[in-house]
Amino acid sequence: MSMVAGSRLSDQSAVWAEIADKSERFGARSPTAAAGAMYDQRRDVLDRMIASIRPLDSQVGAIFVIRGMIAGLDVFDHPRTWAQSMPKLLRSYGLDALDKGIGGDGFATPDPSRFLGAISQATCTAYPAVGAGRDLRFEGHGIIGAALDTKDGVVHAVAFPAADVVRPTRGWRFPRPIM
Fold first, then answer.
1. Whose CB has fewer CB within 10 Å in the chain, the N or C terminal residue?
2. For residues 148 and 61, is the Cβ–Cβ distance under 8 A?
3. Beta carbons of 54 and 138 less than 8 angstroms apart
4. Cα–Cα distance between 22 and 37 in angstroms, integer?
């Protein structure tokens, strides 16, 4: 979903275009250009990748880096929630890692503290959530993100690098598609 500055508007055609481009790079054709075909094609590699990574006892999230470039951040409210969500997120980011069209040249040095600093400095706008709580959207210098805030606190937050707020370098997705 692409985000238009100051709104929660979805650009579904941009999402489908991104999926079609990635499918083309993977050579994963399906009649509907479904993302599932790409996952099915790389299932063995993704399953081995996921099996090799275990969450730390108190871990609640991660910053994902692909070929030296920060690809995104996912953070949850509890280690148990992270442990349950982690395999699906690893599959999604893993597919991105297998895509030669995403990430840097492998020699870039990601700066997580700068990325986190940009998040902490971002402007946040709250909207009523579809269910309970508030849908928080934030944008700032080089980042774009969202969070679900309930009476018990933030349950999930995501952030992605963005060249600018109107045209993110990575397709805007919240919640992140999990397959």
1. C
2. no
3. no
4. 11
**pLDDT tens-digit readout, 74-122:** 999 999 999 999 999 998 888 888 877 666 666 556 788 989 999 999 9
Residue 175 burial class via C-beta count within 10 angstroms: exposed 0-12, middle 13-18, buried 19 and up: exposed
For the chain, the domains span: 12-161
Between CA 122 and CA 96 the distance in angstroms is: 25
User: What local confidence, expressed as pLDDT, does residue 29 receive?
Assistant: 54
More confident residue, 146 or 42: 146
Per-residue H/E/C for 73-135: EEEECCHHHHHHHHHHHHHHHHHHHHCCCCCCCCCCCCCHHHHHHHHHCCEEEEEECCCCCEE
Which amino acid type is present at position 34?
A
pLDDT for the residue numbered 42: 75
Rounded mean pLDDT, 47-53 = 87
